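Regression test case RT-17, inverse folding.

Input:
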């Protein structure tokens, strides 16, 4: 699936919930489903700057050359947010990650229902993931 197709899937999924409490619960469930990452990744080099809670993000390349993300967080909502971002951006070509227009965030109302600090954290996650896309893209050139 492309990034656009994945975004559409998330938008449709979140439309099934009637209120934001249900959406928060779904985010928490997404975070619980996030695969565990290696402890060696939980260091300052992998910590996303700008998040109130701690979020560790790692990126690598798949055999097909796509960017693969793994992550963890010490906060349940934030862990759900990074799980959602991984669902959208992981296993995609570096150029697509770097240039992704992530309209699903506004479409599901995520920005308007997050506290300012969580919203800043989400922006930092997106920025870091796109940075990895740019970095891997430049390695291909």
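Golden output:
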């Amino acid at each position: 699936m492309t990034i656009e197709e994945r975004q559409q899937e998330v938008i449709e999924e979140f439309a099934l919930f009637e209120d934001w409490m249900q959406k928060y619960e779904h985010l928490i469930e997404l975070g619980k489903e996030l695969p565990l990452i290696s402890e060696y990744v939980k260091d300052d080099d992998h910590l996303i700057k700008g998040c109130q809670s701690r979020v560790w993000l790692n990126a690598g390349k798949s055999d097909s050359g796509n960017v693969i993300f793994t992550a963890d967080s010490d906060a349940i909502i934030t862990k759900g947010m990074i799980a959602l971002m991984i669902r959208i951006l992981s296993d995609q070509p570096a150029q697509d990650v770097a240039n992704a227009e992530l309209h699903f965030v506004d479409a599901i109302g995520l920005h308007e229902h997050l506290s300012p600090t969580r919203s800043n954290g989400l922006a930092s996650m997106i920025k870091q993931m796109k940075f990895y896309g740019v970095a891997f893209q430049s390695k291909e050139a």
